[in-house]
Recover the amino acids of this structure.
């Protein structure tokens, strides 16, 4: 089963990742193939996921129902994406970071640390957002374009800036 997932991941990465999006008149059947391939090789995929052109996704992520992975996004392994999540283009969701505390040792030699990222349901993530390791984004949150999210985001909160901080609240 894992070999099948790896083969499908290979086909997606090499042949279908850069195919045109649905809004292009010459997109033909490519978006449907992209969506199907990603649903087959990730750990878990809900119904009706949408994967935009050039989405660089790990095999080790979970995607909820009706969620959309934005064009040019980069999603490391260890990310859980809820249902009805919208992602703008060029989002980066990082789950690994370099260790650097010991100044007597080169950063290259200090290793890395992994921390999972969780994104709740009904979340909108604007273009060019960076989400760093260990962040949890609550249900209904909105992340403004260009934000760098370094800390957890409460449900129904609107955040923006670098580093991201609360700029508003969604009505419930």
């Amino acid at each position: 089963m894992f070999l099948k997932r790896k083969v499908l991941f290979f086909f997606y990465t090499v042949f279908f990742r850069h195919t045109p999006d649905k809004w292009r008149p010459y997109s033909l059947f490519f978006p449907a193939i992209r969506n199907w391939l990603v649903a087959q090789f990730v750990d878990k995929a809900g119904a009706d996921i949408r994967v935009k052109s050039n989405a660089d996704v790990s095999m080790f992520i979970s995607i909820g129902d009706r969620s959309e992975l934005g064009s040019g996004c980069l999603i490391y392994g260890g990310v859980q994406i809820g249902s009805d999540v919208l992602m703008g283009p060029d989002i980066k969701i990082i789950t690994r970071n370099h260790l650097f505390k010991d100044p007597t040792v080169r950063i290259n030699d200090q290793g890395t640390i992994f921390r999972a990222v969780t994104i709740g349901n009904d979340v909108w993530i604007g273009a060019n957002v960076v989400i760093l390791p260990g962040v949890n984004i609550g249900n209904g949150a909105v992340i403004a374009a260009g934000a760098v999210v370094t800390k957890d985001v409460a449900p129904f909160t609107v955040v923006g800036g670098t580093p991201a901080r609360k700029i508003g609240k969604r009505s419930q």
Observations:
- The longest strand covers residues 165-169.
- The helical segments are 2-16, 30-41.
- The mean pLDDT is 96.
